[in-house]
């Protein structure tokens, strides 16, 4: 699958990040099963617990509009290395993805790697665990 548009959206959303405390801007974009793209950026807060990550901002935007099936997510933070989602974001991604969902770690429009949820969150606690 071609992810150029998704990656470009993640890069654009990174520019909107509000990161006055860490100075670490992050952007994310998700494509859902209806092929719509939603984006988000990290939004920090003086009360650090109120901070929201880019990945969750993008996913929550999609879910709030009724989309719950994540096809792919692109994430860009530090453009000199691949930025992985934090633990909380990995758990949120696992809630809305399946084993085929692409997790795209981006340095720039031409340099990225694609991972699957089992690679970044092995043994995830999921809805299936609650149904046992």
From TrEMBL:
Gene3D superfamilies: Cytidine Deaminase, domain 2. It is an enzyme of class 3 (hydrolase). Its EC number is 3.5.4.5. It catalyses: 2'-deoxycytidine + H2O + H(+) = 2'-deoxyuridine + NH4(+); cytidine + H2O + H(+) = uridine + NH4(+). Residues 1-128 form the CMP/dCMP-type deaminase domain. The keyword Metal-binding applies. Its cofactor is Zn(2+). InterPro entries: APOBEC/CMP_deaminase_Zn-bd, CMP_dCMP_dom, Cyt/Deoxycyt_deaminase, Cyt_deam_tetra, Cytidine_deaminase-like. GO terms for molecular function: cytidine deaminase activity. Keywords: Hydrolase, Metal-binding, Zinc. Pfam families: dCMP_cyt_deam_1. CDD domains: cytidine_deaminase. Belongs to the cytidine and deoxycytidylate deaminase family. PANTHER family: CYTIDINE DEAMINASE (PTHR11644). This enzyme scavenges exogenous and endogenous cytidine and 2'-deoxycytidine for UMP synthesis. This is Cytidine deaminase. It comes from Clostridium aestuarii.
